[in-house]
Design goal:
elongated; 7 helices; alpha+beta; 254 residues; two-stranded antiparallel sheet; VC0802-like; 7-stranded mixed sheet
Amino acid sequence: MANIITEIRIVLSAALLFRPALSPGFYALYIAAGFSDMIDGAVARRTGTASELGSRLDTIADIVFVLVCLIKLLPVLSVPIWLYIWIAAVRFSADTDLHRSAIQCRSCLHGCDSGGYSRRVYGHRCIFVRRVVMELKIIDYELTVCKIDDPSMLDLGKDFYFIGKTDEELSLVCKTEDTPDCTRERDDGWKCFRIQGVLDFSLIGILSRISGILADNKIGIFAVSTYNTDYILVKSENFGRAIDALGKEGYTIV
C-alpha cells in the first residue's frame, strides 16, 4: 500500500508538467503529491511494510517531484541570482560540516550512551553519532528460531544464519524457508530489524532503549548480536506496532 502511494506521487508529479504553472489544476496536483509524501512513510510503518525498495522508491519520487516543480516554477518566478548562490552555499556548508563530523565522531563515541544522547559537549560530532544509532533497517525475511541436535544439518552457505552453541544446546535463527527439516523445537513467525552502522563496544544503552520502548508497548523481543551491531526480532503480528512505536520515539526506519 505504501509503495502504491509513492508511485501515485510520481504519476501526480509527471501530471504537473501538463498543467499551467500556478493554475488551479497545478495547485490541486501539487497539494495531492505533497500529501502523499506526508503519509506514505506513516502507512509503511503502521502496516509493517517498510522496505529498502520503498525507501528507494520514495527517494526517486522526491527527486521527480522537485525537478518537475523547478521546471514549471522557475520560468514564472522572479528569483534573484544572489538567492541561488546563498542556497548553494548553505547546502555546501552543511555537507562539509557533516563530512567533518563523520571523520571526527570517533573521538566522542565513548561519551555517548542511551541511543546516542551525549553526556558531553561535542557539537555536531555527537549529532552525527546520534543519527547513526537512531536508524533501524528492516530485514525483509520471515524468520524461525529453532533448536538442533545435529550440527551437520547446518548450511553455512545460507545468507542469513545466526548460530548459538553452548554446553546445553545448539540454536539457530534463519529464514523460515531455510530451516532444517529435523529440528528438536522451532518457533516460526518472526520478523527483524537491525541497528544501522557499526556500534562501538563502549556505547551503552543502545539495545536497552529499544527494548524499553517496545516493553512499554507490551511487545516482546528476541535479540541477537554480531560483531558490528544488534538484530531485534519481533513476532510478525506485533511488527507493525513495533515499527510505529519506534518511529514515534524518533527512530528512522529504512
